[in-house]
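User: Can you model how NDP sits in this protein?
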Amino acid sequence: MRVLKGAEVSAKIKEEVQAALEKYNGAAPKLAIIRVGENPDDMSYECGATKKMENFGLRVQSYVYPADITDADFKAEFTKINEDPDVTGILMLRPLPKQICEKDIEGMIDPAKDLDGISPVNIAKVFAGDDSGFAPCTAEAVIEVLKAAEIPMTGKRVTIVGRSMVVGKPLSMLMVKENATVTICHTKTKDLAGTCRNAEILVAAAGRAKMLNGDYVGQDAVVIDVGINVDENGKLCGDVDYDTVQEKAQAATPVPGGVGAVTTAVLAKHLVRAAGV
Ligand SMILES: NC(=O)C1=CN([C@@H]2O[C@H](COP(=O)(O)OP(=O)(O)OC[C@H]3O[C@@H](n4cnc5c(N)ncnc54)[C@H](OP(=O)(O)O)[C@@H]3O)[C@@H](O)[C@H]2O)C=CC1
Ligand SMILES: Nc1nc(=O)c2c([nH]1)NC[C@@H]1CN(c3ccc(C(=O)N[C@@H](CCC(=O)O)C(=O)O)cc3)C=[N+]21
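Assistant: Here's the modeled complex, given as structure tokens:
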């Protein structure tokens, strides 16, 4: 089985980013990471994204607010960042605490700074197959991994497990743009194992540790594991039970070291594009 490593894809994206930056005069583009509270998922993404920006020669600043900040206070802070000419792009970690209306923020964010595709303007572009906006970085990272590995998507049966707005739904549209035939699964799907086994490319984005074992994988399928979970020993693991899948799959991404590393590289690529480079 081929192991599809994220580091190689990230290195390729780094070259593209640096080639673009050479033609760019002035201060490096700046990423604003907005975090409310101390959610460990948010903090590990923030940490990974910060390291990646520094490694790529880009600027990054975290804006951290207490978990009990009011809706009005958060919106005032958000507006300042959104309008700051020194801020090139924004990553707002989600979900936000309940008292803050996330829908309002989606409508407020400047679509030109919305690097993770949460604005309705950018979502509409993803659905239209118009790549002038920003797709959610994780969804785009899946496409980057497949392209870098030269795995064709045209005409392929693709099954995606998960229908969130950050992975499953936008990825289904990016896959359709690549001419794949897409099936989306969720908790109400009947015969999940059979639907997954039928796929030539299986994407796991359910957020359930090691849920997809060998019974869910067809012979010679390509398996892309988006999940980032913690297993019973406290170690990072994906949604795919890697050990049982190895004999059947043609190729698979590991966790850690797979899609996660590419997500932050796509974020850097979006930041440079937001700078107009
Ligand atoms: N690699 C990366 O950079 C990133 C990784 N992630 C990881 O990806 C995973 C998914 O994230 P996200 O999309 O935000 O998660 P959500 O919890 O928002 O969505 C999970 C989706 O999976 C479906 N699902 C959950 N359990 C099952 C099940 N047993 N059978 C079938 N479908 C199921 C849910 O269905 P329903 O809609 O019916 O509830 C839902 O649509 C997480 O592990 C997350 O940590 C997320 C972002 C970036
Ligand atoms: N607007 C928004 N978009 C997100 O995509 C988003 C979010 N909010 N909120 C939190 C969740 C969780 N999430 C993680 C991503 C990477 C790691 C992670 O551990 N990454 C490691 C690498 C892991 C690997 O190598 O596979 C790193 O970047 O170094 C964890 C969690 C993103 N999310």
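A couple of observations from the model: The CA atoms of residues 72 and 100 lie 8 Å apart. The chain has two domains: 26-113, 137-260.
User: Helpful, thanks.
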